Amino acid sequence: MLPLGTLRRPLAAAARLARGWARPQVLAFLATGPRQDNSVFYEIRTYDIKPSKMKEFVEMANKYFHLRSAHSEMVGIWSAELGAMNKVVHVWKYDNFAHRAAVRHALANDKDWQGKFISPALPLIEKQYNEVAYLVPWCQLGKPPKDGGVYEWVTFQMKPGGPALWGEAFQAAINAHINTGYTKLIGVFHTEYGFLNTVHVIWWNESPDHRAAGRHRAHEDARVVAAVRDSVRFLESQQNMLLIPLQCSSLK
Question: Across the chain, what does the average pLDDT equal?
Answer without folding.
Answer: 88
